[in-house]
Amino acid sequence: MPAPMSFSSSRNAFFGGVKSALTSVFFLVLAGTYVGMGALAHDFGFSSWWLVLSTILVWAAPAQVILLSALGAGSALIEAAVAVTLSAIRLFPMVVALLPLLRGPNTRLRDLLLPTHFTAVSMWVESLRLLPTVPYEYRIAFCNGLSVGYNVTAAAFGFVGYYLAAGLPPLYAGTLLFLTPLSFLISTARNAQMLVDRLALVFGLLLGPALAFFHVGLDLMWTGVVGGSLAYAAHRLREAAV
Amino acid sequence: MSAMAELSPYLVLILVGFLPNEIWRVLGLALARGLNEDSEVVVWSRAVATAILAGVIAKLILFSTGALATIPLGVRVTAAVCGFLAFVGIQRSVFAGVLVGEAVLLLGGFLFSA
Asked: Please, are residues A37 and A63 in contact by the beta-carbon 8 Å criterion?
């Protein structure tokens, strides 16, 4: 359990959050992830400002990778939107779990809008760990500082990756581009603690390319719905058998 | 990029990226009561999201475009497998896995790139 924190003002708490963001392990994770994302955006012909705006507005690395690769490969817009929204369902329970930590007796709805928007894996994990050590009246300010720290880090390293990919010879640019699938593969494997998540990972790895190879329409949606549901069914069967 | 040419890329970002993603956060704010992480709907939706992301990962590695496509398919797959094995073997460290995978890709790229 981290030591309790004390702050003299909301401003002080906000910068406390920024500092926590810049000194946490997620700083490195985000830097690497968004260097890869920047290279991917360059490769698919997006502008660097488009990438920055998507980092601020979408603020979910998986959704951004799906968006970039679907639009970049020329998929129909509705297909990209369906894949993005299916990847984002997980944000719902995360917000539900986070809000009770932020909500005090005098909290207004509009104060919760920013923390809601900024809910993503990095911020969520650190908030759940650190917020219990922050006094209630400063939690929202601290959480916003944490989010802004992570968001600015991601946006800045997105730029770095974008312009590195633009200037490097193909082999090195290819190495940067490889960061995205490689780091997502490994971090997804690490996050997959339960059998159902591991099966979903394996089914997705097999179904995604197979459906794309045979030019099945809405291939990403079917990869998710079929692969995810098969994994879920296996999990239920196993639970029923125990 | 063909579908994007007809609409402004920024409008596409809002309609196809921002809104379909943000709706789940707003729903969480609106319905933030009960629903724990182990409920069945949550388990299923996590599995769906994981499978989609895995599909995208595999497609990025197998059907690469641009600069990554100049590195042969066999090298890309070998590098991903080595990275994964390094992750499993070296204390489940994501950092070690990424480092080994990238090193194998770079080495293979030097030796086998056209």
From this structure: no
